[in-house]
Amino acid sequence: MNAATPVLRLERVYKRYGDVEVLRGIDLDVAEGDVVCLIGASGCGKSTLLKCSNLIEPISGGRIMLEGEEITSEQTDPDRVRRHIGIVFQAFNLFPHMDVLSNVTLAPRRVLGMPQRAAEERARDLLDRFGLADKEGEYPDRLSGGQQQRAAITRALAMQPRLLLLDEVTSALDPELVGEVLTVIRELAETGMTMVIATHEMGFARQIADRICFLYEGVILEQGPPERLFGSPQEERTQAFLKRVTEAGRAADLTATDSS
Amino acid sequence: MSGIGFGTPIEPEGPAGPAALDMARRGSQRRNAVISTVSTVVFFALVIGVIAASPGANKVLDSFFSTTGFKDSFEPILDGFWLNVKLMLVAEGLVLVLGLLVAVIRSLPGPVLAPLRLVALIYTDVFRGVPLILVIFMVGLGLPALRLEFLSDLSVFTYGVISLVLVYSAYVAEVYRAGIESIHPSQAAGARSLGLTQFQSMRFVILPQAIRRVIPPLLNDFIGLQKDTALIGLLGLVEVARAAENYAAETFNFTGYTMAALLFIAVTIPLARTTDWLILRDRRRMAATAG
């Protein structure tokens, strides 16, 4: 693979649910080590874009390439593709009947055929790195939301994916737990992990992203480096969206100061 | 402690300090315990009284609860019951496997499996609908009449097992399937997103959760199966009900039936309590709030 081949490329991707067009011709390139943040109002297609990239949802048109190889053709085995693309969900989707260590080692053992000891070793390294070393024997329901989400990220990373997709991973968390999860993602970005992140956390997106994509009704309306997209957005819709978000943020800040 | 309630007689509704409230709570707990004990005793005294006062009470007591009857019938009835236990164990083991297989076939998507799904659907519909007693006759008398080498020379015990397994696997398949469908699709999404295949996702993620959920209704069906082993006597096997019948025919005393009933209960109750305990232990281990 030459250096210019993007890790992920979407070409004219369409997605329809019945009569509703959720994605209407998405073009997107994600280069090795890139962190791309998807922003936009709820229902703009951020999550669908991620689920299509991971082949959880079949696309209705266009094609998707992983490291230059088309993964949306009839011949591809989706299970093989998903080994190389990790995804972390808003609701964690941890397996409640397994402890944290088993959650993390399940796929390396069953999908990659790693011996138990090796899989556990790799899992412990990751758990240690994300501050969950003492939680390996706990069941998911006994952990805080932040810990659960960190465990879910660990589980995805244990497969050593080429690409990590994060679908609003802090949206289900209590405000005081958001920070610990964002710290983990920041660390991943520093280590060069290629990531596509759907998020409502504008401040975080601004700090971490190499590129921001603003989605509006199933198309990428505007994209660029964070300074430009947040500093001087070109499109009217982008300006309106950012204005709404900043005002909501300011209102929340005000109430927070009032009540304290 | 607030001064108002201090030193005054305890009244549950009145203003009171924490200690007084605690005492009031304990007081009402004690009162509840007394009420439930008294009402239970009165209820059973009434029931026993009515039965004892009935004109045929002594006769019933003699023919269903005679001491010599219990003593004499114990051995032949237990011998018969041992056969029921064997029927239960063999049939339950097979039902667990066959029911699961049918449920998994019905739960897997994909056009390739469509004919299998149809077979599974017809099977569950038919065998849940036909009364066990008819299945026993059809299997026990019909299969031998076919004169097929591999199906027609089996023991009566085997025909009994086949009948029970056919009927109860259909019930149990539906129990499993309800469990499988109760697992949120996000679990399958989580599993598939890690690269697990459809089968692996079912095996390692969906089924372990589904089966835990359906243990109580599964046990319910097993108790039904255990009781229905008594119907295999219709094929001429001397199992517990037949043994009790024989005893009654010899002695004109029905205590054998009571004996048989007690043996069934002696198996069912420990099974139910053990299952409750297992479920509770499992839940404690995974639950959010447990200390």
Strand and helix map with partners:
The complex is a heterodimer of chains A (260) and B (291).
Chain A: E1 8-17, E2 20-30, E3 35-39, H1 46-53, E4 61-66, E5 69-70, H2 78-84, E6 85-88, H3 100-110, H4 116-129, H5 145-157, E7 163-167, H6 175-190, E8 195-198, H7 202-208, E9 211-216, E10 219-224, H8 226-231, H9 236-259
Parallel strand pairs in A: 3-8, 3-9, 6-7, 7-8
Antiparallel strand pairs in A: 1-2, 1-4, 4-5, 9-10
Helix pairs in contact in A: 3-4, 3-5, 5-6
Chain B: H1 18-53, H2 57-64, H3 67-107, H4 114-129, H5 132-146, H6 149-152, H7 156-182, H8 185-193, H9 198-228, H10 240-251, H11 255-286
Helix pairs in contact in B: 3-4, 3-7, 3-9, 3-10, 3-11, 4-7, 5-7, 7-9, 8-9, 9-11, 10-11
Topology, number of strands of chain A: 10
Helical content class of chain A: 40-55%
Continuous helix count of chain A: 9
**What is the CATH-assigned architecture of the largest domain in chain B?**
Orthogonal Bundle
Q: Roughly what is the average pLDDT of chain A, rounded to an integer? A: 91
Please write the CATH class name of chain A. Answer: Alpha Beta
- Give the topology string of chain A: H per helix, E per strand: EEEHEEHEHHHEHEHEEHH
- Global Rg of chain A: 19 Å
CATH superfamily of the largest domain in chain B: MetI-like
* The number of domains of chain A: 1
Looking at how many chains there are and whether they match, the oligomeric state comes to heterodimer
What does this structure look like?
The complex is a heterodimer of chains A (260) and B (291). Chain A has 9 helices and 10 strands. Chain A is of the alpha/beta class and 260 residues long. Chain A has one domain: 3-Layer(aba) Sandwich (Rossmann fold), CATH 3.40.50. In chain A, the strands form 2 sheets. A 6-stranded mixed sheet of chain A has the order 6-7-8-3-9-10, sandwiched between helices. A 4-stranded antiparallel sheet of chain A has the order 2-1-4-5, covered by helices on one side. In chain A, strand 1 and strand 2 form a beta hairpin. In chain A, 44% of the residues are buried. Chain B has 2 domains: 1-46; 69-280, MetI-like fold. Chain B is built from 11 helices and no strands. Chain B has helices at 18-53, 57-64, 67-107, 114-129, 132-146, 149-152, 156-182, 185-193, 198-228, 240-251, 255-286. In chain B, helix 3 (67-107) packs antiparallel against helix 4, helix 3 (67-107) crosses helix 7 and helix 3 (67-107) crosses helix 11. The model of chain B is unreliable at 1-8 (pLDDT under 50). Chain A binds chain B through residues 54, 56, 79-80, 82-83, 85-87, 89, 91, 93-97, 106-107, 110-111, 139, 141-142, 155-156, 159, and chain B through 186-187, 189-197, 200, 204-205, 208-209, 212, 285-288, 290.
